[in-house]
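Bumping my old thread because nobody answered last time. Still need a sequence for this structure:
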């Protein structure tokens, strides 16, 4: 069993409040859950309205598959207009 995890630090340009930040993140998180069947949550920077850190986890029997899914997720987030990826860290257990 392989557990792939990724921690992404994101910059959000459009929100001017925490409420707007939550709306953008909720939309992104729901799209990712539905498209990739992953576990995902905001894990840090909860009180900052232009920065968000999300954690993603996937369980697979194949390391290559888990790596491919995480890379597809990163590409999907990168194409999302409302956010920019500042940094990310990938781990395979």
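Sorry it took so long. Here it is:
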């Amino acid at each position: 069993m392989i557990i792939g995890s990724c921690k992404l630090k994101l910059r959000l340009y459009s929100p001017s409040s925490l409420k707007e930040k939550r709306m953008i993140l909720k939309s992104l998180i729901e799209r990712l859950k539905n498209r990739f069947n992953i576990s995902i949550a905001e894990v840090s920077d909860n009180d900052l309205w232009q920065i968000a850190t999300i954690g993603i986890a996937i369980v697979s029997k194949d390391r290559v598959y888990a790596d491919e899914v995480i890379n597809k997720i990163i590409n999907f987030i990168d194409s999302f207009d409302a956010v920019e990826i500042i940094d990310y860290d990938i781990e395979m257990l």
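Residues 2-92 form a domain with the Alpha-Beta Plaits fold (CATH 3.30.70.1120). Let me know if any region looks off to you.
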